Amino acid sequence: MANSIALPLQEFIASLDPTCLPNILQVCSGVYFQGSVYELSGSEVCFSTGDLIKVIGIELQSVTCEDVSTNEKFELPISHTGLFKVVPDQMPYSSLKEMLSLRPVGLDSSLPFTFTSHTKMSFGSLTLGAGKALTVLSIEQHEGEEDQVRCLVKGQAEASAEVCIPLSSRGQFYECESEECYSLKEIMSSPFLCSRRFRLIKNTNCERVLVLSPIYQIQAIMNLRKNVLRFPSSLEVDVVDVTDLCKDVDFVTPLTLTEVLSQPDESLPAVVEILEEPQSHSLFKSSWLPGLTKGAHLVFHKKRTTGMVVLSSLKGRKAQQYFLVSQEYGGRFRKRPREFNSVYELYVASTQAPGLTVSVTKNCEEVEEEGLPALSVGEKLEIVDCTRMEVPGDSSKKKAQSVEALLCHRLQDPDDADDDDDEDESAEEAEQKDEKEAVLMPLYMQGHFVEALRDNKKYKLCDLGNFSLPLDMKVVSRDTELKADPLVGFTCLRIEGVLLEPTIQASFPHKPDDCFELPANWLTMSVCYTKEPLPWPEGQCPKCFIERVIEVSDTFFYEFRKQGNTDEAPPPRPPKRDLSSLSSKKPSKPSKKSTKLKKSKLSVPTDKGVPTDQFSHTQSMKLDEINHVFVFSAGNLCDVTADVDSDHDYETVDDSLVCLVKSAQESVAFY
To answer: Is residue 190 within 8 Å of 183, Cβ to Cβ?
Structure first.
């Protein structure tokens, strides 16, 4: 503890000259000590005995008024518009010079003012009796002569006279109450007025004598405190001034990564110490993350804004992985066809990339009541536009519903065109053939589609900015500058989004050339600058190898998605199905291409060489009661039509029949 006089904080700040800042104070004693905590306007201020406080600024905020007679206190803002009168002191002045030197403001601006003398005064032939009131008009100064005070004396019958009294005159002089009024700002700006007592002027007569004390907002910094502290000077702690003893004390200021980015460019490169380790370990899976511990040192090389891409692997047997990749990544990509599991997904993709063409990967039967068209494996569809269609429903009970639908054009394969030439077509059918066949699919329809691609080029990551996202890609050539490229080996990687991320290029002191980038907006940690030298010879900064692929967790990916797709609309709800109509509905005929596929399957023998008619004699069941023939090929059950030209409708195979057929399949395999 410094050998200085301890003063209450309020008293010390009131006597502090703002031009002498900064000042270093040490908390020593008082009502609050050993970790006192103050809750001030929602911010917590904590002081302990021995703490050092570096005062860097003070600002007058308000004034405390204390009633002399009752000790009652109240606070007024510095902007208070009320006026105050000076209450004359009860103690006498021993000379005119003393009385004039203690005037609250400059002497010329405070004139005139009135005082009385409790002793008789004689000036040559003039004698003034005790108790006479004298009003000071001016100070007479003549070279080579003593200064004199020119005063006005009032006599009887309103007679008055002016007299000059030497400034060195002694006696018992008392101030008279002045009619001059002052505002709070004027009082607080004058050290002489601050030491006086006042009476607040109101509409009604106020006799309360007040002592005014300024309250300052103190701006200070403390060691290991992140922000500038702001607290009032009215805190009841005692402090001592240790500025001269603590000139060389460094006040460490913690900085977040974002605050480091706001520092001047000249502040880097530098060696920093981690004061608070990252609180977001769950966001990253990088090799450098375990090294970011409290007390560890890092080399901050430079700061920049890096273009980054968020990649994800496809769901499968292995856990899904996510990566944050710099656009400087040197590997090459090739497009991969996207898969879609609903018409709504097709619609979303078509809005991002017009002209989308897909192939059907799973058959779909036509359901007229729900507006579902018939689709066959291999058919190609060109997405045209989003429109509306009428869903008939159960015409006996409900009216048709208008729903959103995707308008597509069914593209004809060359093989299909050759087959059509062999068939007899009417003039009307030939005319319709020249036009593209339109297909309407409601957006709530489920299906399986794959994108039809014609692009086989290789792309750099930085060249994919003109494509609509998401985009499925595959790494076909690795980044040769990476020791191990984690993106190689994935059958498909999906580009989920692009972001411009402010980063800090950093490394560990023992490997200054092995650098990695710290995303400032995704890492919550604090550091401070140290005075340690850089780990390389002066002026010989090493060539840095920068890690370009950062593996991130699913938590990072979900947080990233929340920042972007907040306005994405959910898929439309399908119309309610009338279950009573499903029992009586008639399944529609499959599409033309589906019929051809079924027709061709009839001529394909089974793998075991067992004809269909031979298999029918092997089983005890009567397959002639069913309008389907079941052909077993490589252990798979294929449903084909017994008679393509038959007028009978196709029947739905129930679960019991499927079990029976499976039993028959096992018998054939054994046979």
So the answer is: no
